[in-house]
Design a protein that fits this description.
single chain, about 5% strand, elongated, mainly alpha, 2 strands, Arc Repressor Mutant, subunit A
Length: about 80
């Protein structure tokens, strides 16, 4: 993903939009709080629509790789 970079010297190594200090996490938070793509670009003109889509694609790729392990509930016995 050419729009997203990780550099331990920038934002503690969190993924950011290339050439900025704007994290993927921040963009996702804005979207989750109801901001539109246009609103984000208006307030952060160094971003463009491709950057915002790249942030979503990055988050999606991370979730696809995530493994989920369901633990038994308290007092639940595992059957073999």
């Amino acid at each position: 993903m050419e729009h997203i970079v990780i550099d331990e010297g920038v934002c503690r190594g969190k993924p950011v939009i290339k050439g900025t200090r704007i994290t993927v996490e921040f963009i996702l938070e804005l979207l989750a709080n109801g901001w539109s793509t246009e609103g984000i670009i208006e307030n952060y003109p160094q971003l463009n629509e491709e950057d915002i889509l790249a942030a979503l694609q990055y988050a999606t790729s991370i979730l696809k790789e995530e493994n989920i392990y369901i633990l038994p509930k308290k007092n639940e016995v595992l059957s073999r």
